[in-house]
From TrEMBL:
Protein family per UniProt: Belongs to the flavin monoamine oxidase family.
Domain Amine oxidase: 30-462
EC number: 1.4.3.10
Cofactor(s) needed for function: FAD
Name of the protein this chain belongs to: Putrescine oxidase
Top enzyme class: oxidoreductase
Region (Disordered): 466-495
SUPFAM superfamilies noted in UniProt: FAD-linked reductases, C-terminal domain (SSF54373), FAD/NAD(P)-binding domain (SSF51905)
GO terms assigned for molecular function: putrescine oxidase activity
Protein residues bound to substrate: 356
Keyword Cytoplasm: no
Binding positions for FAD per the UniProt entry: 49-50, 250
Amino acid sequence: MKGNTMDAKRSLGSSQARECDVVVVGAGPAGLMAARTLRAAGLSTIVLEARDRVGGRTWSQEIDGAFLEIGGQWVSPDQTVLLELLEELGMETFSRYREGASVYLDRSGVRHEFTGEMFPASEQTVAEMERIIGTLDELAASIGPQEPWSHPAARELDTVTFNEWLRSQTEDEAARENIAIFLAGGMLTKPDHAFSALQAVLMAASAGSFSNLVDEDFILDRRVVGGMQSVSEAMHAGLPEDSVQLSSPVRTIAWDPAGGATVFSDRLTVRAREVVVAVPPNLYSRISFEPPLPRLQHQMHQHQSMGLVIKVHAVYGRPFWREQGLSGTGFGPNEICQEVYDNTNHLDSRGTLVAFVSDELADQMFSLPAEERRESILRSLAAYLGEQALTPEVYYESDFGAEEWTRGAYAASFDIGGLSRYGAHQRSAVGPLHWACSDLAAEGYQHVDGALRQGRRAAQDIVHRLNTGGDHGDHNGQRGDQVAEQTDPLEVNHG
């Protein structure tokens, strides 16, 4: 009776109750890829999404008449799963504009135009940067993206901050600042004293090398015609009409270690044999698990957090910087906007710039009134590209840190010592619960490609488990040595 009473209370906010083989929590790229893969294997799925849209951290909107990609957008050559999906869906990409000179603002704010891959720093600074990049490339190749925690040097690298590691490599402050742009500001969006050297190496290894990360022509190669969110929209369109339920935040997952679960959302209650939780780790605590997750999971999730970034969009009547022979690309280690790029849309006559204000700089900007923040950011853009940058026709700031169902950007990363301590367990299933998001990826970590890989992996694990009658393991997320007694997984007693 106790279990029935609890179920009844939870169901008060849900007008419907349904059953399926697998329920997926989250309709971002990972969740939709999981549903797509599961349905191709003949399994029924229901996707529950808290937002009123699909796409997760990819989101496109028309703001004041301008099409803006508010979330993730770029496609690089190493993102092969994403590229294959785009081809399968018949979707096109276009190259980021990169003709002309780039701009570098040095530590003193002096403006330099340059071409080529390396910043126009002093000969000594360039030599130090090249040496450190080489060292990071060697570490990334040796450690790899799959199991960085298993490398002999893992704990040593994971218990020192990236800032400390850089200081151990060179006394050249400009070299350290320039290297940090690409990881602290450009990728992990945390100060370089807030993440470990091992986390930095994983970021590099996930992209193939650190050299790839510092090559904006590689990592920011192409965009999807129609925006990256349209990939999720196309996957959604390929699923049965009622199988994706929007505006349905999941509040409770009642699960049985032997198999089966009941998922309670605001609009729907779903009983399923397996569950894919396809949201970032910082949101796991938004869900009540009954029984509670194992201690290891509780501890691990407390050591993962999002970074912070303001993605700035400025749209102009024309891409005026091109008239000056500039690519629109700019870097400045001590600027408010440490990175600037031409983000003009496909076949658009207007010009769009995108700039990024990360971590502690974002804190400073958010402490200002909106108009003062806008003025400070536009003056930073003008330092790169001239006074015309001060007067955009459209100005917009993407702030995923304020999004209830994201709470940061771009992805969660571990604190100091967390990756080597918990990394091996982050993708392990717990009973019928499976985890999938870009934050857990090896290749494609914190990118759409990584989300697709993790959604497909979780789905394939479920298909294998159901086809082979494999057990659900113990409460620590590891499969047990004995095959569990087989019962109807939907007949779950939560009392």
